[in-house]
Amino acid sequence: MIADLDGMYDPASYNDRLLLGLKGTMSEAELHVIKQRMLQGALQKARRGELVTKAPIGYVRSAAGEVQLDPDEEVQSFVKLV
């Protein structure tokens, strides 16, 4: 038996397997749509100059949003080696 918020399904039953297959296919399609929307949203923000990403390793983002070397001197020494 398999259960979700919509009900219980018996994988031995043809109808239940068919329904689970359809639900899986629809979920996969929905995931694709959500990923596309997220990507388009990020591109729109980038075009407007509003996209904020994580600072690279060894750097931190200041309160003003600027990327600076990490204040930790040990981290700075490793970044300068690279």
UniProtKB/TrEMBL annotation:
It comes from the Bacteria. Residues 1-49 form the Resolvase/invertase-type recombinase catalytic domain. One of its GO terms (molecular function) is DNA strand exchange activity. PANTHER family: DNA RECOMBINASE-RELATED, DNA-INVERTASE FROM LAMBDOID PROPHAGE. This is Resolvase/invertase-type recombinase catalytic domain-containing protein. Coiled coil: none annotated.
